[in-house]
TrEMBL record:
Protein name per its UniProtKB record: lipoyl(octanoyl) transferase
GO MF terms held by the record: lipoyl(octanoyl) transferase activity
Record pathway: Protein modification; protein lipoylation via endogenous pathway; protein N(6)-(lipoyl)lysine from octanoyl-[acyl-carrier-protein]: step 1/2
Family: Belongs to the LipB family.
Annotated BPL/LPL catalytic domain residues: 1-142
UniProt enzyme class: transferase
The UniProt record lists the keyword Protein biosynthesis: no
Pfam families the record matches: LplA-B_cat
InterPro entries, alphabetized: aa-tRNA-synth_II/BPL/LPL (IPR045864), BPL_LPL_catalytic (IPR004143), Octanoyltransferase (IPR000544)
Protein's organism: Ilex paraguariensis (yerba mate)
EC number: 2.3.1.181
Gene3D superfamilies: Bira Bifunctional Protein, Domain 2
Record keywords: Acyltransferase, Transferase
Tree of life domain: Eukaryota
């Protein structure tokens, strides 16, 4: 999620903005996946136990913030075994899919649900939840404008 937001209309405080982005993700994890996430003192990101699910990085110019966050939904975590992400030695990188596990593929009634569904569904639901929670937390309204096909060409 890479929001572009004028912090003059909210709060001109970069630490507040980082913590508020983390709050958006914590709400998504709780409301959509029933995952209890937290923040760790001195470390940016959203955590579940010792696993970092969200990396946050912002750029701000004249109080216009851009860049944002990456929430690991279904990512292959193998490459993270070869590096020390964010220079943090004693923690791991995690994902929603990894936390939910792959042992259950249905809700017991023969239909797939978002907690145990396919990757595309999980990504789509996460995206919608991120937008919803962002709008609620920042008290903004998302206005989408369709782009005509000719403009894309």
């Amino acid at each position: 999620m890479y929001p572009i937001i004028n912090l003059r209309c909210h709060k001109m405080d970069l630490h507040w903005y980082l913590r508020t982005l983390e709050e958006v993700v914590s709400r998504v994890l709780s409301s959509t996946f029933s995952i209890k996430a937290s923040r760790l003192e001195g470390l940016t990101g959203v955590w579940v136990g010792d696993e970092k699910l969200t990396a946050v990085g912002i750029r701000v110019s004249q109080w216009i913030a851009y860049h944002g966050l990456a929430l690991n939904v279904t990512i292959d975590l193998t490459p993270f075994q070869w590096i020390v992400p964010c220079g943090i030695q004693d923690r791991r990188v995690g994902s929603i899919k990894g936390l939910l596990g792959e042992s259950l593929s249905s809700n017991g009634h023969g239909t797939t649900d978002i907690r145990h569904g396919d990757d595309n569904l999980r990504i789509d639901v996460t995206h919608k939840s991120l937008v919803k929670e962002f709008c609620e937390v920042f008290q903004v309204e998302l206005c989408q404008k369709p782009i005509p096909m000719l403009e894309l060409l």
